[in-house]
Amino acid sequence: MKLKIVEYPDRKLKEKSEIVKQFDKELHKLLDAMYEMMIKSNGIGLAAIQVGYAKQALLLNLPDENDEQSIDNLIEMINPTIIKTSGETTYQEGCLSVPSFYEDVDRYESVTVNYQDRYGNKKTLDADGLLSIAIQHEIDHLKGILFIDKLSYSRRKKFEKEYKKMQKEKKPSKK
C-alpha cells in the first residue's frame, strides 16, 4: 500500500473521519503502511486522514531516551475518545500535513482515552506530557481540525502569510 501525506491547504484534511467497524486485513494493511510513512517522515503521530483515509485511526510513536522510535512503543488507536482531561499546558507543535511550521498551542496537560486496538479490543490509556499533546493533536485530525485552527486570529494571519511565502519558495521557477 503506497501512501502520501496530504498537505495543507488540501480540503481532505477538514473531513471528519468515520468510525471503524471492520477490524480486518485492510485495516491492518493501512496501519502498517501508516507506520512506515510516519517513521519515514520523521513523525511521532499520524492520523489516517493525513494519508487520505477518513477512518478514526491514528498512530503514536514517541522517541525513547535515546531518541529512537522503537516499534515496541507504537500505540495504535482506533475510534479514540477522550473521556477525561486535566490541567493546561502550552506546547510548540508541528504537523506532517503542515510541513516546516511550528507554533505554540494550548492543550490539556493530561488525558484519559478510550480506544480500540487493531483487533477491536477495548483499551484505556492515561497520558500526560508529550504523549497527551500528541493524542490530542491526532484526535483533532479525526475531527477535521488542524493545530493551526487553534491559533489566534493574528497568529493565524501571520501563519497564512508565512506559509504562502514558503510554498512559493518551494516551487521551482519556470524559465
Describe the structure.
The protein is an alpha+beta fold. It has a single domain (11-170), classed as Peptide Deformylase. 27% of the residues lie in helices and 31% in strands. The protein has three helices and five strands. The chain has a five-stranded antiparallel sheet. It is globular and about 45 Å long. The N and C termini lie far apart (36 Å). The mean pLDDT is 95. Its EC number is 3.5.1.88. The active site is at 138. One of its GO terms (biological process) is translation. Belongs to the polypeptide deformylase family. Keywords: Hydrolase, Iron, Metal-binding, Protein biosynthesis.
Write the layout of secondary structure elements.
Elements: H1 25-40, E1 45-47, E2 57-60, E3 75-95, E4 98-116, E5 122-128, H2 129-142, H3 153-170
Antiparallel strand pairs: 1-2, 2-3, 3-4, 4-5
Under CATH, the topology can be stated as Peptide Deformylase
Backbone structural class: alpha+beta
Low-confidence runs of at least 5 consecutive residues: none
Helix content: 25-40%
Q: What is the domain total for the residues?
A: 1
Shape: globular
What pattern of helices and strands is seen along the backbone? HEEEEEHH
In DSSP terms, counting alpha (H) and pi (I) runs of 4 or more, how many helices? 3
Secondary structure: number of strands = 5
CATH architecture: Alpha-Beta Complex
Q: Major sheet: order of its strands?
A: 1-2-3-4-5
- The CATH class designation is Alpha Beta
How far do the termini sit from each other? 36 Å
CATH superfamily: Peptide deformylase
Average pLDDT figure = 95
Query: What fraction strand?
Result: 25-35%
- Rg to the nearest angstrom? 16 Å
Main pleated sheet = 5 strands, antiparallel
